[in-house]
Structure formats: structure tokens, C-alpha cells
Specification:
Blueprint lengths: L2 H5 L6 H7 L7 H7 L2 H5 L28 H22 L1 H4 L7 H7 L4 E4 L22 E3 L1 H15 L12 H22 L5 H20 L20
Antiparallel strand pairs: 1-2
Helix pairs in contact: 5-8, 8-9, 9-10
């Protein structure tokens, strides 16, 4: 299923949108998703979203934020990883909407062994293995797509600062990232239980989806419903 068809399945309840106080100039996508509330209501029983913080505000900080040399460097380092993570996040949408948290695809997104974060490197010297046991292939580093998403989103968001004296937690991009993590951490706990018909897990995913769109605007990436994330991305540094 294409990403565009996944998006039609999710939208934040009005109370959640008001709680996050998302600014109207962030993305036209947020307005279009809010028009689909009636469709999403059938998926999320009662429209209840857990763990929302009423005073989190995502002021615009993407195109208007002050530019420092850390921003272009951060883009080269983390844009690929963040875009790949968004692609993976959206891919599990069709499974999440079924509310079955025992789905292999959903579990894989949180599986700490499912993603190679660092490839194994040869420890040979000039092409020759000098070890007695001839075991010169290094060990690869693995983690979950979600954990890699958390790391790259935070590091990219931290680069978008108005001045270097501002603490990371005060940045709109970092606030958005942490709000997204809160919803997804709660969903991860539901996934570990592996229950079927878990509407709470669907609610966390739906809330995270809308927060993610706000985050992408703040770090100058395309919105979710732009079809940009239907393709795969390299996590390698650009």
C-alpha cells in the first residue's frame, strides 16, 4: 500500500490538535488531515490519545530559523537517516490500522536486531589478515529502526537553533521530536504486549503521525503527504 493511502487512515482528534497548539503556517497537510477526522474516529475508539502535554507549542522554526554552520552539516549527516526512518514509520501504517500489535511488520520496527546501523568493517592490514584465527571481519552494530529514528531526529532537531546559547530542550524542533518520542515510546510498550485489537496503540501512532509532520516542517523536510517518503533513502552520510 502506498504512503498516500496510509495517510487517509489517520488524523488527530480536535482536542489533541488544540493541545499541541500547532501553528497554522507550519503545513497545509495538517489542515487537510484534520478534515478527515470522521474517518479516523472509527479507528481510534473514543478519540482518546494518551500522554498529551497541553502546553507544547511548535512555533515555526524551519525556513525562518537563524542559520548556523551546524545546520548544513547536520543536514548532510542526518537527513538521509531521518528520511529513511520516516519511510519505515509510514510503511507500518497499514498494519497498525488493523490494531494488531502482534504483526511481524510492526514488531520489526521496534526490534533492536532488525537494522544494521554500522556495517562490519574488515580489520585487515593492507588486505592481509594478521590475526591467528584469521577472523578479521569486524562486528556490525544493530538496533531498531525506531531507536535510530529517535537518535537522528534528536540530533537533526538540535542543529536548528536560533542561537548557540539556547538549550536543546527549548528548541521547537527538539520539543516536537520529544513529543513524537513520547507517543511512540508508549506505542512500543503496547507492541511488546502483542495484543490484538489494541486501539490505544493505534491512538499513539495517529498522534505521533501528526506531530511528525510538524517536526518535518521545523527541520525543512517535505510534509508527510507529499509522496516524498514513498521511496527508500540511504542512511549513509551525504
Amino acid at each position: 500500500m502506498k504512503v498516500s493511502s496510509i495517510l487517509a487512515c489517520f488524523a488527530l482528534a480536535p482536542s489533541a490538535v488544540q493541545a499541541y497548539n500547532i501553528q497554522p503556517n507550519q503545513s497545509a497537510a495538517a489542515d487537510s488531515r484534520r478534515s478527515m477526522l470522521q474517518k479516523a474516529g472509527a479507528l481510534v475508539a473514543g478519540g482518546a490519545f494518551l500522554g498529551l502535554e497541553p502546553n507544547v507549542a511548535f512555533a515555526s522554526g524551519g525556513a525562518t530559523a537563524g542559520k548556523y554552520t551546524t545546520i548544513p552539516i547536520a543536514k548532510r549527516r542526518y537527513y538521509g537517516r531521518v528520511q529513511a526512518a520516516v519511510h519505515d514509520f509510514l510503511l507500518i501504517g497499514p498494519e497498525v490500522v488493523k490494531a494488531d500489535m502482534s504483526s511481524p511488520a510492526v514488531k520489526k520496527f521496534f526490534d533492536v536486531n532488525s537494522l544494521v546501523v554500522v556495517e562490519a568493517r574488515s580489520q585487515s592490514i593492507n588486505g592481509q589478515c594478521t590475526k591467528k584465527d584469521q577472523s578479521c571481519k569486524g562486528q556490525e552494530v544493530r538496533d531498531s529502526p525506531y531507536n535510530d529514528m529517535k537518535t537522528s531526529m534528536y540530533l537533526l532537531g538540535n542543529a536548528f537553533r536560533i542561537n548557540q546559547q539556547k538549550p536543546p530542550d527549548a528548541l521547537p524542533s527538539v520539543k516536537a521530536a520529544k513529543a513524537f518520542f513520547k507517543e511512540m515510546d508508549a506505542m512500543e510498550k503496547r507492541v511488546k504486549k502483542g495484543k490484538a485489537d489494541d486501539k490505544d496503540a493505534v491512538g499513539h501512532y495517529a498522534a505521533a503521525l501528526d506531530i511528525l509532520d510538524a517536526y518535518l516542517d521545523l527541520v525543512e523536510l517535505p510534509p508527510i503527504d507529499s509522496n516524498w517518503y514513498e521511496k527508500e533513502f540511504s542512511r549513509a552520510v551525504g
